[in-house]
Structure formats: C-alpha cells, structure tokens
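Deviation from plan, reported transparently: LCLJCK34 complex.
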Amino acid sequence: MNERPVPAPRGLYLITPDEPDTARLLQRVRPVLGSATWLQYRNKTADAALRRVQAAALRELCADAGVPLIVNDDAGLAAAVGAAGVHLGEDDSDPAAARALLGAEAIVGVSCYDDAARAGRAAAAGASYVAFGAFFPTRSKSVTRRATPALLRDAAALGLPRVAIGGITPDNAGALVAAGADLLAVIGAVFDASDPAAAARALQRCFAPR
Ligand SMILES: Cc1ncc(COP(=O)(O)OP(=O)(O)O)c(N)n1
Ligand SMILES: Cc1ncsc1CCOP(=O)(O)O
Ligand SMILES: [Mg+2]
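Because the crystal trials were delayed, the predicted structure below was used instead.
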C-alpha cells in the first residue's frame, strides 16, 4: 500500500470581517484568498438569511481557489453550503454533534481560549484543531482572556494543529509560529490594512518551509 501522510495545515487562516454587502465581501476576499491556507466565514451582525447567501457565495469562491471554507458557529450552515468544516466556541454547539453531522473528513475546530484542559477535552471529543487566544489586543471581538505562547508549546502533546488568534500582525506573529502555531487566524491585520493583499502575503511568509 502506498499511503502518504496528509500534510498538516500551516499558514494564514483568514477570517472574514462583518461585511453586510455580499458583493463587497467577495470583492474584499478575492484579492487575499490566494495567500490563505483556510478561510473562515464569520459574520456576527448578519441574520440567518444573509449568512446563508454569503456562505454560499464564499463556498463558490473558495472552491475555485482550492481553499477550504470553514463556517463559524453554525454546523447546519456548514452542511447546507457544503463547507469543509465549522468552528465552534464555548457558546456554540457540541463538537461531537458537529462531527456526527458533517462527517469524519470535516474540519471541526474548537476555541480553547487560555485553557489547556479545554483543549484536551476538545481533542477527546474529535476536534480537528484547537485554537487559543486572544494573544494580543484586538478590535474585532470583545475578549477577556489572554493566551500565552506556552499554551501553544504545551498543546503539541495533543497531536492536533494549533491555531493562534487575536490581534496577530506580521510584526508579532513570529513568536507564535516559533511556539508552534500551525495556523494564524487573522481578521483586522488583513482586512483593515491599507494593502490587504500585501498584509496577507506577509503573514503567510511567517511560515518558512520546514
Ligand atoms: C480560529 C478561531 N478561533 C477562535 C474563534 C472564536 O470563536 P468563539 O469563541 O466562538 O467566538 P466568535 O468567533 O463566535 O465570536 C474563531 N471564530 N475562530
Ligand atoms: C474571533 C476572535 N476570537 C478571539 S480574538 C478574535 C478576533 C480576531 O480578529 P483580529 O485578527 O482582528 O484580532
Ligand atoms: Mg462562536
């Protein structure tokens, strides 16, 4: 048998900003998608109907670009648009239920904040990756918990990809990659940048080939 291991994902995990205009959302995502390893659709201000329209439009864009699409919060929406997976936090549904709905191949990511024990439980429940944060001050979400690079280092023992999130920029990302982050989840440093495509490239470059 000639089984090759599937390479672990590594690089920029881009997350969409709260953009109410779907055409504008696609216009903003298109120029940066080529530098993304994964894209997460996150819109905390849209209603269910708009989220359905936007997720479906992004699914098509991502399929053309060969970039896996992950839907924030809502496994049902991920299933409905044929996304690659879902990201779940403490206020969202259970990772095991999402796994049952989306299937064994789906990406089911779990927010672990600053909590190593929560990451262990997520791994046991079948998570595909664990996410820690916020590492730095962020304007994209009101956060109360601050993660440290040591969490990333210690989570290596779980054997799952480790995602870092929260205020990450090309200037502060190096320490997180050095501590073992496989993916850098970013909103503002790309979508609020004066040159989003250059910012996305700079973040992707933080991952020198191993
Ligand atoms: C990759 C990644 N990590 C963390 C989060 C945050 O999830 P959650 O705590 O559920 O908060 P909201 O994003 O739903 O506001 C994320 N979305 N993605
Ligand atoms: C969704 C989320 N969860 C923790 S921080 C954060 C926001 C990340 O956005 P930014 O990259 O702009 O700090
Ligand atoms: Mg959530």
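The chain has a mean pLDDT of 96. We consider this an acceptable substitute for the interim report.
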